[in-house]
Automatic annotation (TrEMBL):
It comes from the Eukaryota. One of its GO terms (molecular function) is calcium ion binding. It comes from Oryzias latipes (Japanese rice fish). This is Actinin, alpha 2b. SUPFAM superfamilies: Calponin-homology domain, CH-domain, EF-hand, Spectrin repeat. It is found in: Cytoplasm. CDD domains: CH_ACTN_rpt1, CH_ACTN_rpt2, EFh, SPEC. Its main location: cytoplasm. Belongs to the alpha-actinin family. GO terms for cellular component: cytoplasm.
Length: 894
């Protein structure tokens, strides 16, 4: 509202010059007006007064009579000012009327208007000149004074407004408020300029002033709610129409059309605010959808990764490992991108909400960015443990298979050796033998005991392998059953052996002849045979190694074994010599008995066959060890190949991380320069992806070869994967932060120089150079920038920049605070004021008004969300725009 202007109107025994409006006309000293002007003023002022008194349910018929008691005059002033006047006197005496008129005149004077020569007595006495002068003063003050166009006011402003609005129209030239309006075209031009739908200006004729005037007056009364204040015939028949009457009528056009323009401006503001709100709601819905889908994927995937149920075979575990590789290579990378995009969308939405002065977006319960990050962390923890478990289980199954085969071989060999031994030990052949035979049986039994003692280690080895298989949970029942069977048989053999020895020793006293050669053969052939059995078993023993050093150790042990072969061959020849000696003695002395050694079950053919078998197995063992050495060399090449790439890729990723950090902290250039540099870095990173894929291929070859360690590098594939994913996330987040700063800068009108100053101040007080300021550093930064901080003010600022009370202020929070301090935004009060204009100053608004003033989409948006108005005096369907506007800015809840 403009400052009140002091208005001075002079009356001195007649109508003198009107200084405020510089009107040149004078009333004569006999207090008479020009009759034509007086008639025009009567009609115009009466209609003007009635246009306002109708709002109070009354009107006047005779302007000089109906204001004499002062009651309707006070009522008129209350209606046009919106203020309450003192309570009027209700008496009918003259002094009551004078008192009421004086109250009205005092109210007019209180509004900065000087009333000269107008007294309450003249109004009470029905003085036409004074009454019309008083009404004109009221019109000037309440209808014309506040009109302002380009720093002009009152009459000049109203005239300039008319000239601008009618300038494009043919035959219209507004220079004053009398003769310029006689042909009616000026009135029609004003109507057509603002409401072209009401008349066709091209069809009007300058030579038909009566038709033009009546057309304008009728349209104004019917469509613009402007009462008919002028008479067309009076204007035409008067050489110079009354200026006051014309100005009064034209001011009604100004207020009618100015209100429409103001409503249009208010509607545009509301459309803008609602458009921003609709866009934000769409982003919120999109965030909720993406968050739900990502969390659902994590919820489905995590139990699979947490499942630690082992498979029974190596092939099944290898299939599980292949499924895990498909998950890491095909299924997880798109979800990493979705998670990164979700965080970017969330940050962009929060920035837009801050820029538009809206409350921050709070996702549904369980869908916060922190919730998603926590769920993702749980997924990765399960993933890491799953891969470790897979590799451990594969190693276990490999060990189990090896031990199971070894157990079967040793158990089978022992069972084959023990087969029939129980029956032999249970015989009672010694009861019917000769002395020589009994001695032979005794010696044979001693040889068996020697063999039995030699098998003690094998039984213990079988038991130890069975125990290890039990610990590895391999076919526990079957292994234990077989092991128990072997141990029971071993115990029984031991018992039977002891019993037979006792029986033979009891009989030994009766026996005196023993064939020493057979005995010697038995004693030497049994250990040698056992040695050959052990040698064949060792030469056929399966082995599992992981390094060339382990293979070399096996080769060295094998070479040591081969070094013992000459000594073994000498023993073999010696044993065969004993057998040959027996044959020689038997032939020499004509012995007729059989050549079966009574002390040993080992035949020379068996020794020869086993010896030939040992000689065959030695080169086979050499070949197997050389093949394993070649395989381990191939594994070593795979390790070196992987290490060479990993040692390049790891430092490269770290260098890009440092480059991104330096770029995000640069001050010299613009944010667009930083964005360009970051985009270039992003392009370089994307172009580097084939190196990561090649490393994944090498890693797959290593895992398929069951190579589990690599001494040539400290980088594992997991390190490279985590570093690569962190690099992709960091570049995306940094680009998003720069985009957010550009959006904030552009939306808030902040210059690049200001942004550089903000960054320079932040970097100076970022003591630890970690992208955040501590509380004391932030206080020092504000003081350096000119803030006068008390404890209460600093606490208020810390709530804004650090709502979670972490004790640190990030760069984004610092920028948000500085932009909030230096920029202006829409407020809830501005939106309420805009709605009040559309509602014609009512505290509520109707559905028809919303649909008339706003575009259809915004109107229906308001109707759907605006609560009913609960105040008194509201018609059905009235809506509360105040509650709606404050809810938009988070200041209340709908």
């Amino acid at each position: 509202m403009m400052n009140q202007m002091e208005t001075t109107v002079h009356y001195d025994n007649g109508y003198d010059e009107y200084d405020y409006m510089m009107q040149e006309e004078e009333w004569d000293r006999d207090m008479l007006l020009d009759p034509a002007w007086e008639q025009q003023q009567r009609k115009t002022f009466t209609a003007w007064c009635n246009s306002h008194l109708r709002k109070a349910g009354t009107q006047i018929e005779n302007i000089e009579d109906d204001f004499r008691n002062g009651l309707k005059l006070m009522l008129l002033l209350e209606v046009i000012s919106g203020e309450r006047l003192p309570k009027p006197d209700r008496g009918k005496m003259r002094f009551h009327k004078i008192a009421n008129v004086n109250k009205a005149l005092e109210f007019i004077t209180s509004k900065g208007v000087k009333l000269v020569s107008i007294g309450a007595e003249e109004i009470v006495d029905g003085n036409v000149k004074m009454t019309l002068g008083m009404i004109w003063t009221i019109i000037l003050r309440f209808a014309i004074q506040d009109i302002s166009v380009e720093e002009t006011s009152a009459k000049e402003g109203l005239l300039l407004w008319c000239q601008r609005k009618t300038a494009p129209y043919r035959n219209v030239n507004v220079q004053n408020f009398h003769v310029s309006w006689k042909d009616g075209l000026a009135f029609c031009a004003l109507i057509h300029r603002h409401r072209p739908d009401l008349l066709d200006f091209s069809k009007l004729n300058k030579d038909d002033p009566l038709g033009n005037l009546n057309l304008a007056f009728d349209i104004a009364e019917k469509h613009l709610d402007i009462p008919k204040m002028l008479d067309a015939e009076d204007i035409i028949n008067t050489p110079k129409p009354d200026e006051r009457a014309i100005m009064t009528y034209v001011s009604c056009f100004y207020h009618a059309f100015a209100g429409a323009e103001q409503a249009e401006t208010a509607a545009n503001r509301i459309c803008k605010v609602l458009g921003v709100n609709q866009e934000n709601e769409k982003m919120m819905e999109e965030y909720e959808r993406l968050a739900s889908e990502l969390l659902e994927w994590i919820r489905r995937t995590t139990p699979w990764l947490e499942n630690r149920t082992p498979e029974k075979t190596m092939s099944e575990m290898q299939r599980k490992l292949e499924d895990f590789r498909d998950y890491r290579r095909l299924h997880k990378p798109p979800k990493v991108q979705e998670k990164c995009q979700l965080e970017i969308n969330f940050n962009t939405l929060q920035t837009k909400l801050r820029i538009s002065n809206r409350p921050a977006f709070m996702p549904s319960e369980g869908k916060m960015v922190s919730d998603i990050a926590s769920a993702w962390q749980g997924l990765e923890q399960a993933e890491k443990g799953f891969e470790e478990w897979l590799l451990t289980e594969i190693r276990r199954l490999e060990r189990v298979d090896h031990l199971a085969e070894k157990f079967r071989q040793k158990a089978t060999n022992h069972e084959n050796w023990a087969s029939g031994k129980e029956l032999i030990l249970s015989q009672k052949d010694y009861e019917t033998t000769t002395l020589t035979e009994i001695r032979a049986l005794l010696r044979k039994h001693e040889a068996f005991e020697s063999d039995l003692a030699a098998h003690q280690d094998r039984v213990e080895q079988i038991a130890a392998i069975a125990q290890e298989l039990n610990e590895l949970d391999y076919d526990v029942a079957s292994v234990n059953q077989r092991c128990q069977s072997i141990c029971d048989l071993w115990d029984k053999l031991g018992t039977l052996t002891q019993k037979r020895r006792e029986a033979l020793e009891r009989t030994e006293k009766l026996l005196e002849t023993i064939d020493q050669l057979f005995l010697e053969f038995a004693k030497r052939s049994a250990p040698f045979n056992n040695w050959m059995d052990g040698a064949m078993e060792d030469l056929q023993d399966m082995f599992i190694v992981h390094t060339t050093e382990e293979v070399q150790s096996l080769i060295a042990a094998h070479e040591q074994f081969k070094a013992t072969l000459p000594e073994a061959d000498a023993e073999r020849q010696a044993i065969l010599g004993i057998h040959n000696e027996v044959q020689k003695i038997s032939q020499s002395y004509g012995i007729k008995s059989s050549f079966i050694n009574p002390y040993s079950t080992i035949a020379t053919e068996e020794l020869l066959n086993k010896w030939e078998k040992v000689k065959q197995l030695v080169p086979q063992r050499d070949g197997a060890l050389q093949e394993e050495m070649a395989r381990q060399h191939a594994h070593e090449r795979l390790r070196r190949q992987f290490a060479a790439q990993a040692n390049l890729i790891g430092p490269w990723i770290q260098a890009r991380m440092e480059e991104i950090g330096r770029c995000s902290l640069e001050i010299g250039g613009t944010l667009e320069d930083q964005m360009t540099q970051l985009k270039q870095i992003e392009h370089v990173i994307i172009a580097y992806k084939p190196n990561i894929d090649k490393l994944e291929g090498d890693h797959q070859l290593i895992q398929e070869s069951l190579v589990f360690d690599n001494k040539h590098t400290n980088y594992t594939m997991e390190h490279i994967r985590v570093g690569w994913e962190l690099l992709l996330t960091t570049i995306a987040r940094t680009i998003n932060e720069i985009e957010t700063q550009i959006l904030t800068r552009d939306a808030k009108g902040i210059s690049q120089q200001q942004m550089n100053e903000f960054r320079s101040s932040f970097n100076h007080f970022d003591r630890k150079k970690n992208g955040a300021m501590e509380t004391d550093d932030f206080r020092a930064c504000l003081i350096s920038m000119g803030y006068d901080l008390g404890e209460a003010e600093f606490a208020r600022i810390m709530i804004l920049v650090d709502p979670n009370a972490t004790g640190i202020v990030s760069f984004q929070s610092f920028i948000d605070f500085m932009t909030r301090e230096t920029a202006d935004t829409d407020t809830a009060e501005q939106v309420v004021a805009s709605f009040r204009i559309l509602a014609a100053d009512k505290p509520y608004i109707l559905i028809d008004e919303l649909r008339r003033e706003l575009p259809p989409e915004q109107a229906e948006y308001c109707i759907m969300r605006m609560p009913p108005y609960a105040g008194p005096g509201a018609p059905p369907g009235a809506l509360d725009y105040t509650a709606f506007s404050t809810a938009l800015y988070g200041e209340s809840d709908l």
